[in-house]
Amino acid sequence: MKPSFEQILESNRARLVRVARQYAGPNDWQDLLQDMTLKIWQGLDSFDGRADLGTWIFRVALNTALAFARKRKIQTTPVTDSDLGSKHGGDPLHVLEAFLQSLDPMNRAMLLMELEGLSREEIADVLGVSSGAINVRMTRLKARFTEQFVETAQ
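Given the sequence above, the corresponding structure tokens read:
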């Protein structure tokens, strides 16, 4: 039995809010959330079940968010070590948030999905690239994060 639209939204709400907050400013994320909800509703009848419903919803949400960011010309914000110390007090959640904000929209989407627990194959499916490409990009992102934000013992 196919879940109702309300059930689908309720079970994916937290994920959709996190995506909306990543791709829109503090004043616009609710607008983006509405856009994502509308796109999911419009496309639900065409969902054919070949992919997992959660993966399909993530794809719709990210495509909507990427279009939203392009339309509003939302830019990434470079983050420096001094920014992290002064703005975030070393709080790991804030460091992660700052790192996400410094990424281009595609890498941000990929890392968000990884943090949401999607497999590399699911991420590749959502983004339309090979899982090998996802593995390479994730390795580069981890190296970049380590280089920028992880203090190494000397």
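Helices lie at 5-23, 29-43, 53-71, 81-88, 92-102, 105-115, 120-127, 131-149. Try to locate this feature in the token string yourself.
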